[in-house]
Amino acid sequence: MKLGITGCGMIVHDLFNFIHDVEGVELEAMASIPAEYEKVQELAKANHVKKTYECYEDMLADNDVDVIYLGVPNHLHYAMCKQALEAGKHVICEKPFTSHIKELEELNQLAKEKELMLLEAISTQYLPNVLKIKEMLDEVGNVKIITANYSQYSSRYNAFKEGNILPAFDYTKSGGALMDLNIYNIHFMVALFGEPQKVHYQANIEKGIDTSGIMTLDYGSFKAVLIGAKDCKAPISTNIQGDKGCINITTPANNLRGFKLLRNDGTEEEMNLQGDTHRMYYEFVEFVKIIENKDYQRVEEMMKKSLIAMTIATKARQSAGVVFTADENL
Fold first, then answer.
1. Nearest residue to 229 (alpha-carbon basis) of 184, 166, 167
2. Whole-structure pTM value
3. Buried b (16+ CB within 10 A) or exposed e, 106-139
4. How far is residue 184's CA from residue 165's CA, in Å, rounded to a whole number?
5. pLDDT per position as a tens digit, 292-326
């Protein structure tokens, strides 16, 4: 696939840590806003990207680009996905896909009408360790309780407390702990168990945004508690508890570098199928296969997961009273 990259933030820097190792990717172009064009030029030169554009629309008009990767702030995802689809490009968009479920439903419909592929760049759904855990769920017996805590104190929170509100803590830019960290816990649950029956979110809200919060998901026969925090920290831990044992994870759901199966009989098994491979590598290997093979069935399968995750995130925000500026357009 001939990739056009938009953005020059942390996630795009992350992309360049592994993308050269993914077979089938041609780094065709990069685009930015005028204020960041110099940064984009430097990044493109350092990573052998063929062309740079000072304007996103100009890159969309480039016939050599067939896939757009969006690594831009959350609140821009919907509009920029829509522009790319209308320009006839396949789209890979960073998580969270959109600010609200209705935005994603509209984009999904547009992609279908245009016969284009729309994919969410969410590492959790593609990690070999996550897929292995799904295979091994029977080992813990009947699942009863799941807890997932992804708490990571943000240096941006210091600035936030002083009145300097950066995108990660800005409700006008669809930020907050749920959309930044807890979204990975949500996708982990969706990858393993699909859609819950009930969603509730209790959040610590400052200046209109959730700086941390506790989400509960009711799956009928078992319950889950998902914690995401940017205003405090704790050891990262996820536990899937069943009546025969427990799967214990001590790394975040976005990289999940190994896990332990702790059986009730006292035996243990430790696994890691990923080694030191970059967490985003697996999703892009899959994206190349999907796009090259025109595998619209796989696109539909992954979109269903994204729709469930965004439904959960939307219901959670609504239950906590967190309102984004993007919600006003619905």
1. 184
2. 0.97
3. bbbeebeeeebbbbbbbbbbbbebbeebeebeeb
4. 23
5. 999 999 999 999 999 999 999 999 999 999 999 99
